[in-house]
Design goal:
single chain; 272 residues; alpha/beta; Purple Acid Phosphatase, chain A, domain 2; 22% helix; binds fe (ii) ion
Length: 272
């Protein structure tokens, strides 16, 4: 019981040292974000990264990610995205839970169960949720001692009005199964959090609340011909997820980075 706070980061796409991605070094942006979190959100219970942790699934890229996220003063957990490599991730991070070869786990915060799903489908941009993974989720939904659930996954289980990605989310049949599984229990699923799109998105998914957090690396631009093919470099974003016994609340926070690569801090007290 009581209030818990979780920081959400999405799609950092860490590249190898000396490389750039769309003209930026994603590691520098993640470093500034980590510095900001430690300075202003050190009271959080947990930080979760919503997949596409690195660009090409390389050992050196995961090592860079580990060096940066290891500076966070709170527990950190990760989920798999389409740019990730499960085997390499497991080698570098040695996660405590990698049952059946999938990076899935249930974390308890008070009476809330956080279910971290693995929707990765190797060789595909789109995601999948096979029978093996379904069995794990059904078991957790049926047997968990929690009074409520939160679900974290990389691929959105619905189209999001971004044509380039609307056929590259979770497989539609798997998404249909997932919605039924999350809706049938007596214990509520308060929120579904996803990545992949590189935008802030809020959705009512046939009764379930779902949100994505804009990422820390290159971001999906919006224009009149919004097909999702162009990128820009807005400020990195983090999500602050407040978990109450009867509700969740998600605040989005941009990180303004100065010319020295440091996150800008609040400087004045608002009078209203
Ligand atoms: Fe991504």
């Amino acid at each position: 019981m009581g209030l818990h706070k979780v920081i959400l980061l999405s799609d950092p796409h860490i590249v190898s040292g000396g490389e750039l991605r769309y003209g930026i070094d994603p590691a520098k942006r993640l470093q500034a974000t980590v510095d900001f979190i430690n300075a202003f959100h050190g009271d959080a219970d947990l930080c979760i990264l919503l997949g596409d942790l690195v660009q090409e699934g390389r050992h050196d890229q995961y090592s860079r990610l580990k060096e940066i996220t290891g500076q966070l003063t709170m527990e950190v957990q990760f989920i798999m995205g389409n740019h990730d490599d499960r085997d390499v991730f497991i080698q570098i991070f040695d996660p405590a839970v990698a049952g059946d070869g999938f990076v899935q786990q249930e974390l308890m915060l008070g009476s809330t169960a956080l279910l971290l799903l693995d929707t990765m489908n190797p060789g595909h941009v789109s995601g999948a949720y096979c029978r093996q993974r379904r069995r794990w989720l059904e078991d957790r939904l049926d047997r968990s001692p929690a009074s409520q659930f939160l679900v974290f996954m990389h691929h959105p289980p619905f189209p999001v009005h971004v044509p380039k990605l609307d056929h590259k989310g979770l497989d539609p049949e798997d998404a249909q199964w997932l919605h039924a599984a999350l809706s049938r229990g007596a214990k509520p699923v308060r929120h579904v959090l996803f990545g992949h799109i590189h935008r802030n998105i809020a959705v009512n998914w046939n009764g379930l609340t779902a949100s994505s957090v804009r990422n820390t690396a290159h971001q999906r631009a919006r224009d009149l011909n919004d097909d999702g093919t162009r990128f820009w470099h807005g400020p990195p974003c983090l999500g602050v997820l407040y978990i109450h016994d009867d509700r969740t609340l998600l605040q989005m926070q941009d990180i303004i980075i100065d010319s020295d690569g440091r996150p800008q801090a609040p400087v004045e007290e608002l009078m209203c």
